[in-house]
């Protein structure tokens, strides 16, 4: 699957928040929007513009391109209940995101790389599709040959806060249940995304 390979800090500057861990310090200093007119006066953003920015922000946080993101929205709209909540749940249940949430990787990009290079096993079977949707009671583990990897060891030692819907022991994690809204990505307003696609 295709992915964005351009400058990442530019994306954070465009959305006005640190989308990636390395951009946190730069964004705290007050980075201006990218482009020739970034320092110029800011125009008042329209309702459509607000919805578009929210959609772009969600895409960039989870590392998706438009076609794949739109497919998630369409699939979510067919599920009974709130479309926005179903969309966020689908995004959170992506294998690359679960690997990141379990603390096996410092970023979603690194988690995606681990999955696509075949270093992640789901229920003892190699899965190399970052978009794979995990289910309840599935186990997610780092392959044996990568357990001594210095980056993974360092990330595990830092001990990120584990969401309650996941459980981890060493390099093996388990999905206990599907996430609740308060356990999903907090910087996204899913209702604006639904409104954008329902125009």
Offer a concise description of the structure.
The protein has 199 residues and is α+β, with helices and mostly antiparallel strands.
3D architecture notes:
- The protein is an alpha+beta fold and 199 residues long.
- It folds into two domains: 8-91 and 185-197, Ribosomal protein S4/S9, N-terminal domain (Ribosomal Protein S4 Delta 41, Chain A, domain 1, Orthogonal Bundle), CATH 1.10.1050; 95-177, Structural Genomics Hypothetical 15.5 Kd Protein In mrcA-pckA Intergenic Region, Chain A.
- Helix content is 42%, strand content 9%.
- The chain has a five-stranded antiparallel β-sheet with strand order 2-1-3-5-4.
- A hairpin with a 2-residue loop joins strand 1 and strand 2.
- The longest helix has 16 residues, at 47-62.
- The two termini are 27 Å apart.
- The relative contact order is 0.14.
- The model has no long low-confidence stretch (mean pLDDT 85).
């Amino acid at each position: 699957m295709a992915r964005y390979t351009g400058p990442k800090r530019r994306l954070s500057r465009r959305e006005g928040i640190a989308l990636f861990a390395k951009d946190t310090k730069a964004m705290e200093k007050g980075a201006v929007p990218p482009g020739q007119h970034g320092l110029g006066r800011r125009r008042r953003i329209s309702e459509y513009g607000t919805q578009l920015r929210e959609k772009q922000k969600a895409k960039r946080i989870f590392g998706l391109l438009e076609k794949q993101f739109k497919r998630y929205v369409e699939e979510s709209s067919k599920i009974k209940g709130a479309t926005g909540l179903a969309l966020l749940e689908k995004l959170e249940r992506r294998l690359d995101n679960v690997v990141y949430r379990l603390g096996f990787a410092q970023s979603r990009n690194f988690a995606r790389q681990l999955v696509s290079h075949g270093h992640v096993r789901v229920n003892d079977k190699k899965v190399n599709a970052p978009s794979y949707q995990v289910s309840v009671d599935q186990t997610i583990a780092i392959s044996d040959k990568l357990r001594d990897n210095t980056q993974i060891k360092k990330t595990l030692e830092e001990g990120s806060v584990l969401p309650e819907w996941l459980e981890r022991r060493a390099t093996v994690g388990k999905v206990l249940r599907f996430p609740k809204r308060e356990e999903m990505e907090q910087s996204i307003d899913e209702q604006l995304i639904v409104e954008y696609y329902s125009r």
